[in-house]
Amino acid sequence: MSFPKYPEYKDSGVEWLGEVPAHWQIRKFRHVFQESSEKIDEKPVGVMLSVSGYRGVEVKQYEDDNKRRTHEELIGYRIVRPGQLVVNTMWLNYAGLGVSEYVGHVSPAYRSYWILPDLESRFAHHLMRSQAYVTGYTKYLTGIRPNSLQMSRDDLLSLPVLVPSVSEQRVIAAFLDHETGKIDALIEEQRRLIELLKEKRQAVISHAVTKGLDPNVPMKDSGVEWLGEVPAQWDVVMLRRVLEGIEQGWSPECHSTPAENGMWGILKAGAVNNGVYRESENKALPHALHPRPDLEVCSGDVLMCRASGSTDLIGSVAYVESSRGNLMLSDKLFRLIFSLKVSAKFVARTLGSNPLRRQIEQSINGAEGLANNLSQATIKGLYITVPPLHEQDEIVGHIEQQTGQIEGLLDASKNAVDVLQERRSSLISAAVTGKIDVRGWAGAAEQEESELAMVAEEQAGYSAQGGAT
């Protein structure tokens, strides 16, 4: 799909906006938005809302109802009405704003604004969340830490806002709603495919490490609920039987940025997410601190996440195929050291299988007060299968061959999502800043009919009230 440019442009006078259509107005934020001072003073109004960088304003979801605010705690929270622009000034560099479709409330740190008649709400939603404007917000952000940069109220009120005619805004908004809707549907299809591929990968691993590769082999009851039947010649043992030791890392105060090659760094918990070792998930060690070579991660290591804010990450295991060196364990990671009775790769795959995952989740959920921590005793008490050593190697080879194909499909789907999201972002920015002219869009005629019907309806209502002569 390609669209023409506007016939004539002018310099916006704003570096991050560049040239804009000659007939568009440029007004200050304070002239098209009016701050709402409405706050909760007694009973809560509507539902708790949050702002997503991808979706805009949405109803806040709680995994734990105990985290919901009490009525007393909500006193002073800002009330949000449908059609208002909700702004989190600390997340503007992540598109932390959007026009609400809900009645609700947000943290006092947020602000809400009525949109004045010169600006159509859907156009305002796309405009203020566009990549062009996110780039603009970053010019005004101040603060010390990267995750707490904030835009001042005065800078926001002085922000330049592009204002085409209302009819043109409606066409642009309708075009973007239509086109982004199609792109979002394609993204959702890819995400569903990604989840199916992940499930298939897990199924391949889980079947191989608990049932083996020979479908005709005699089976026996493992005696462990999560494992079910296993090949008759396999052993089923607690992990402690094949462990030589467990080492825990170190977590001094580090830089927030990753260590450059040659520099020492500390691995984060996410370095073993989804069973894949990612050495880029690290924080640079300050020069003033001496590294601990005894905690350096090496090729052949098996790492397990023992603690995290995400219960999905706790217990994740990854085998380190290779390491660039100069990276140390953090205190959120264990290094599992196995005896020569087992293949470290096989055990790593086993610990990432569904049956072991269920054992780990049961241990986490059953340990009151330890929901974000996995103890060494719990790890040693996990039950695993132990085939003959040569069979372990065969199973690992089979898993790598099968999952390698799946990983290729996963990478292709993830790349497709990235391309679609980039397309979505570019299309929005191009349309709302006038880099393309969508007035000739095929749906524009339908939009114009809708506008005429709206005007006719308003006039009819005016006449019914006795306003027409």
Structure notes:
The structure is a single chain. With 469 residues, the chain is α+β, with helices and mostly antiparallel strands. It folds into three domains: 25-163, Alpha-Beta Complex (Adenine-n6-DNA-methyltransferase TaqI, Chain A, domain 2), CATH 3.90.220; 164-212 and 389-469, Helix Hairpins (Orthogonal Bundle), CATH 1.10.287; 219-386, Adenine-n6-DNA-methyltransferase TaqI, Chain A, domain 2 (Alpha-Beta Complex), CATH 3.90.220. Helices cover 35% and strands 18% of the residues. The strands form eight sheets. A four-stranded antiparallel beta sheet has the order 4-11-8-9. Strands 6-5-10-7 form a four-stranded mixed beta sheet, with no helix packed on it. Helix 5 crosses helix 10. The radius of gyration is 28 Å and the shape is elongated. The model is unreliable at 366-370 and 458-469 (pLDDT under 50).
Please name the defining characteristics of this protein:
Adenine-n6-DNA-methyltransferase TaqI, Chain A, domain 2, about 20% strand, four-stranded mixed β-sheet, Helix Hairpins, four-stranded antiparallel β-sheet, alpha+beta, elongated, 23 strands, disordered C terminus, about 475 residues, 3 domains
